[in-house]
Design brief:
Elements (H helix, E strand, L loop, with lengths): L4 H8 L5 H18 L5 H9 L3 E2 L28 H5 L2 E5 L5 E2 L1 H14 L3 E4 L5 E6 L4 H10 L16 E2 L14 H11 L14 E4 L14 E10 L2 E10 L11 E7 L1 H18 L10 H8 L1 H14 L5 H10 L18 H10 E3 L5 E6 L5 E3 H14 L4 E3 L5 E7 L3 H10 L14 E2 L13 H15 L5 H4 L3 E4 L13 E10 L2 E10 L4 H4 L4 E7 L3 H15 L6 H17 L41 H21 L3 H20 L10 H13 L12 H11 L7 H25 L6
Parallel strand pairs: 6-7, 7-8, 16-17, 17-18
Antiparallel strand pairs: 1-2, 2-5, 3-14, 4-5, 4-13, 8-9, 9-10, 11-12, 12-15, 14-15, 18-19, 19-20
Helix pairs in contact: 1-6, 2-3, 2-6, 5-13, 7-8, 7-11, 8-10, 8-11, 9-10, 18-19, 19-20, 20-21, 20-24, 21-22, 21-24, 22-23, 23-24
């Protein structure tokens, strides 16, 4: 039962840092002012986001407790008015620096999940926790209770420095250069609320990795990525960091650029501060679609950006925290609770399977790290409590969340593995298959996210069920594949760096909106997310399991000499991939089969709005349909050209695809539009951008800017990088054109 806010305030008095307690008091006052209409929504939205308080979606118009609610909680510019904010719960994100937790913190999360949420905590791809269905009136109390357990929600969202992530195996991994944990904690503490990090145009995500070959830190896809390296100075070993800047996924993924091959620990914090200053000073503020640091670095070039940062570093006033935080963090140590042991040789088939996939030896002999695999990243309140008990019983509470939405426990004596497995089994936490093809990463999708287009969680659950049925038949190469799913283009499920990635889109079939997923292939998860995949084609959601089956079977049968999946995909080429899958993109042969019109995990038809069913033999195919199909073909051909090293051709084809899609939409109002690119862009701007008809309900006019920018650059030659970005932008522009066409319906006679 939920305790009253005032009761908790009294009980927690003195248990929180004064500054944090004051901040939460201020936020509570701001909630009151917003209720009274005395605080502008635009300002309050950023305030609550910086406290980790997000809006949430309710597709079926019901709360989890059955009460009727508005479509979205916590209104933004898109949903004005106060009723929604107070009638419908939202989501609370909770920062966990480097993923590190203790047993008491797990128990606190369990209590909060039960009292304020639906009894489930969700682990994210940035090692955070999220609680859904949290009412905004309860958030100050929730924050106070977290603060008393030394957890903060500050800057978990908003235009701020997000959670500092780190390899969950740091300190125990046999392949690491050194333990990055203390440095990740020092950077997190230093940048939290730092005045030089309060004026960003968008978010800023740092990460740490202990080595270059594994994926645990994912340095290549972060705004600031740090990889442990070592050198020598006067014949003595010296540790430092290979520093990367400007990576990011999102709608269009960017690979991070090398800023410095060796940054000594004493320069870590001042350089990060200088980067923050440059980002705040020169980063885009008005156009949010260009406001991440990756775009600033693209515009300036890495050399100019480096020069600005080093000049800023030179001018920084000395700060004692630069050395104090690093030195105090360097004192960080972990120790085992039990003596070292030996790995058990015997056990049941289930135990041996779990041992094979969910344990790994530490560099400290006789100890193992165990991974608790969490399907969909979810863990119940009772499971959190059971995990806290396990942590106390077998370790010194050495617990970490992972970027694959799991939890690891470190320093398990190998003597205890069988007993620990039985304890996890009793709690329903002994799923095998961690970090295998079964361990599917997914964002919340249409379950709760306001941006979700297709049901990523529903698809992930279905894929996991089907793959589990035949997982023992897979060889090692197939078992080690990674599947990642996002409900929209924003890549919260990290689909770009998966072997098999999927992101939600909507297409029209037989006059109805049908949930689809774009199939993204060619990404690389290892080597800190070394390369990004590209979309191949959009397939109805209900056909995606067959897509996975065909691709996995084709890889198992056709790979050569231990060939990695991304290399296999590159070798067989886009044309063969399209031939393998294209029948799955078509409408079902049986017109009475309605299954394609529903999404996974949702019995309702995806849309009942009739967008225009054709006469007699079938639907009339309009000129707009042809142009949109042609635009998709052009993007596909651009990818083929890019794969063949023809960067300039690829870039020109991607631009032509955008022009073709824009021309198709313009034909809805101006059927005789010419093929002149300037006229197409001009008419599109006037008829669809200025009128906001093209604006996506959540992305606004973001994708239209891709066309405008491409037109401005159309006379310049393309590099491999610029062509790659343009292909991704063209994909998104064409998808936005499809969505716009669906929203408008099909005018008669088109």
């Amino acid at each position: 039962m939920k305790a009253s806010n005032s009761l908790w305030q009294k009980e927690l008095a003195g248990k929180m840092p004064d500054a944090l307690a004051r901040e939460i008091d201020i936020f509570e006052t701001e909630i009151t002012l917003r209720k009274q209409g005395k605080l502008e929504e635009r300002l309050f939205a950023e305030t609550r986001l910086r406290k980790g308080v997000y809006g949430q979606r309710y597709d079926n118009g019901q709360r989890h407790d059955g009460r009727k609610v508005q479509e979205m909680a916590y209104p933004s510019e898109l949903t004005k008015g106060l009723n929604t904010m107070w009638d419908a719960p939202g989501m609370q994100r909770i920062k966990i620096p480097a993923g590190g937790l203790n047993a008491h913190q797990l128990e606190t999360l369990a209590e909060l999940a039960e009292e304020y949420s639906d009894g489930i905590a969700h682990v994210t791809t940035r090692q955070d926790f999220q609680l859904h269905y949290v009412h905004i009136d309860d958030t100050p109390s929730l924050m106070r209770r977290l603060a008393a357990a030394n957890i903060t929600t500050r800057e978990a969202c908003g235009n701020s420095v997000r959670n500092v992530t780190a390899c969950p195996y740091a300190g125990v991994c046999p392949d690491e250069v050194f333990d990055v944990t203390p440095f990740a904690r020092a950077l997190s503490k230093f940048l939290l609320g730092h005045p030089d990090c309060q004026n960003f145009g968008r978010k800023f995500k740092p990460s740490f990795s202990g080595c270059g070959q594994h994926a645990c830190g994912l340095a290549s896809m972060h705004d600031l990525g740090l990889i442990a390296v070592q050198g020598t100075e006067n014949r003595e070993r010296k540790i430092g960091f290979e520093m990367y800047v400007g990576g990011g996924l999102g709608a269009v993924p960017y690979q991070a650029k090398l800023f410095d091959p060796f940054v000594p620990p004493e320069e870590l914090l001042p350089l990060a501060q200088a980067i923050g200053r440059v980002f705040a000073k020169y980063g885009e503020k008005k156009n949010r679609s260009r406001a991440r640091i990756k775009f600033l670095i693209q515009d300036l070039g890495i050399e100019k950006f480096r020069k600005l940062v080093l000049e800023e570093r030179k001018n920084l006033p000395p700060d004692p925290r630069w050395t104090e935080y690093v030195e105090s963090a360097a004192a960080f140590t972990e120790a085992p609770l039990k003596p070292a042991g030996n790995k058990p040789l015997l056990g049941s088939t289930d135990f041996q399977r779990w041992l094979e996939t969910n344990t790994r030896p530490q560099k400290q002999e006789g100890y193992s790290v165990i991974t608790i695999a969490l399907p969909l990243g979810d863990i119940t309140a009772n499971q959190l409590r059971a995990l806290a008990d396990v942590a106390r019983r077998f370790t010194n509470e050495t617990i970490r969340t992972t970027v694959e939405q799991n939890i690891v426990q470190r320093w398990i004596s190998q003597n205890d593995l069988a007993e620990l497995w039985r304890a996890l089994q009793a709690a329903g936490l002994a799923y095998p298959g961690a970090e295998t093809i079964l361990d599917i990463v997914t964002c919340p999708g249409t379950d709760t996210c306001k941006l979700g287009i297709s049901s990523s969680r529903g698809l992930a659950a279905e894929l996991r069920k089907r793959l589990a049925e035949k997982n023992f038949q897979f060889d090692e190469a197939v078992q080690n594949l990674h599947i990642k799913i996002s409900g929209c283009f924003n890549s919260c499920g990290q689909h770009h760096v998966a072997d098999l990635g999927f992101y939600g889109v909507s297409r029209k079939m037989a006059g109805y909106a049908v949930p689809h997923f774009q199939v993204v292939l060619g990404g690389e998860w290892t080597h800190n997310a070394a390369s990004y995949g590209m979309p191949v084609m959009a397939v109805p959601s209900k056909h995606i399991p067959e897509v996975v089956t065909r691709l996995v079977d084709r890889y198992a049968a056709g790979r050569k000499n231990g060939e990695a999946f991304k290399d296999f995909i590159k070798r067989i080429g886009k044309a063969e991939l399209k031939s393998l899958l294209e029948d799955l993109a078509r409408s079902p042969a049986d017109p009475t089969d309605r299954s394609i019109f529903t999404d996974w995990g949702d019995p309702r038809e995806y849309s009942l709005e009739d967008l225009g069913v054709g006469e007699c033999a079938g639907e009339v195919v309009s000129a707009v349909d042809f142009d949109l199909a042609g635009a998709e073909r052009e993007v596909f051909e651009a990818q083929v050209a890019w794969d063949n090293g023809q960067a300039d051709t690829a870039g020109r084809l991607a631009y032509q695809a955008m022009l073709l899609a824009a021309r198709g939409l313009v034909k809805l109002e101006y059927p005789n539009i010419s093929q002149d690119s300037d006229q197409i862009v001009g008419e599109f701007r006037t008829r669809f951008y200025d009128t906001q008809k093209f604006f996506d309900p959540f992305a606004g006019g973001k994708f239209a800017h891709y066309l405008f920018a491409a037109q401005q650059r159309s006379q310049r030659p393309h590099t491999a990088d610029s062509a790659r970005y343009l292909i991704d932008e063209a994909h998104l522009f064409v998808e936005a054109a499809h969505s716009c066409y669906q929203r408008m319906g099909k005018p008669v006679g088109v």
